């Protein structure tokens, strides 16, 4: 089960880097190419959304079927393992939330940059007519 979390971690990193590169001021020459690359990568990254939802349901199922372990009813090692399991589930849920938010932000920023480029092209056409 660790492989899918590694893949999701790399996906979150790639989304964050692309979002950072698209929003950094001063690289207008590269922005057109980055926008085109990002638009082409949004469709494959969309497959991450159902995968995240599946893993979120898996986390919920594990949470619901986890045996309860209080400090009094368990040995210290069982209690520690139970606490580690809870922390891993919370970390994984935060990773899923980060991936979904980064995807939404990347989609929004890319669509805004495409609209800005289209408006700039219209403005140039209007200037050339006059």
Sum this structure up briefly.
The protein has 130 residues and is mostly helical. Helix content is 87%, strand content 0%.
Please explain how this structure is put together.
Its main location: endoplasmic reticulum. The chain has helices spanning 2-23, 28-46, 48-65, 76-129. With 130 residues, it is mostly helical. The protein has one domain. The model has no long low-confidence stretch (mean pLDDT 88).
**What portion of the residues fall into strands of 2 or more residues?**
under 5%
- Low-confidence regions: none
Whole-number total of structural domains: 1
Q: What is the typical, i.e. mean, pLDDT?
A: 88
Separation of the first and last Cα atoms: 63 Å
**So what's the overall shape?**
rod-shaped
The radius of gyration over CA amounts to 22 Å
Q: State the order of secondary-structure elements, H for helix, E for strand.
A: HHHH
Q: How many individual helices?
A: 4
Total strands: the figure is 0
Q: Please give the share of residues in helix.
A: over 70%
Key features of this structure:
about 130 residues; rod-shaped; 4 helices
Q: What topology emerges from the helices and strands here?
A:
Blueprint: H1 2-23, H2 28-46, H3 48-65, H4 76-129
Helix pairs in contact: 1-2, 1-4, 2-4, 3-4
């Amino acid at each position: 089960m660790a492989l899918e979390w590694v893949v999701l971690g790399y996906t979150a990193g790639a989304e964050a880097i692309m979002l950072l590169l698209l929003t950094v001021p001063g690289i207008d020459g590269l922005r057109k190419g980055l926008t085109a690359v990002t638009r082409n990568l949004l469709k494959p990254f969309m497959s991450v959304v159902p995968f995240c939802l599946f893993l979120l349901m898996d986390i919920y199922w594990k949470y619901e079927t986890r045996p309860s372990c209080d400090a009094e009813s368990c040995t210290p090692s069982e209690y520690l393992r139970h606490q580690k399991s809870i922390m891993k589930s919370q970390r994984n849920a935060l990773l899923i939330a980060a991936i979904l938010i980064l995807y939404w932000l990347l989609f929004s920023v890319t669509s805004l940059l495409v609209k800005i480029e289209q408006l700039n092209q219209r403005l140039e056409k209007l200037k050339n007519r006059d």
